[in-house]
């Protein structure tokens, strides 16, 4: 019999306007490995976040392009543990994605994907 307890995160979904552009950001720049995705009747991609967790990119024509005007740490965001934060930030910044270092003193930074979704990148050992 199940004990009805939450065991952890299964997947995170991010809404995107252009799945191909988002695939480039998450797959090519962040280096996430693609996962098989069934035909769901709308565009998107799935990526492996490790430990059985996944990122689902959901293609939606108008993905809530609201500019909240707040720093990434105060906005809704996805946080990813990374190895080699400075190397990854260099790759992102070279591709035109500005990063904002965390004010917490941790080895972490925030970057927005092509649709304005905030991604927090936290050095794995931090």
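Q: What amino acid sequence fits the structure above?
A:
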């Amino acid at each position: 019999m199940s004990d009805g307890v939450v065991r952890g995160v299964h997947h995170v979904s991010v809404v995107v306007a252009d799945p191909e552009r988002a695939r480039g950001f998450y797959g090519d720049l962040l280096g996430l490995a693609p996962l098989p995705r069934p035909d769901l009747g709308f565009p998107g991609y799935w990526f492996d976040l490790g430990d059985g967790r996944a990122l689902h990119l959901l293609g939606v024509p108008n993905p809530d392009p609201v500019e909240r005007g707040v720093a990434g740490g105060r906005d809704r965001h996805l946080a990813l543990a990374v190895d080699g934060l400075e190397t990854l930030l260099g790759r992102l910044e070279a591709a035109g994605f500005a990063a904002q270092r965390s004010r917490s003193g941790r080895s972490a930074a925030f970057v927005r994907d092509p649709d304005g979704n905030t991604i927090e990148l936290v050095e794995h050992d931090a």
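Q: And what stands out in the fold?
A: The two ends are 38 Å apart (CA to CA).
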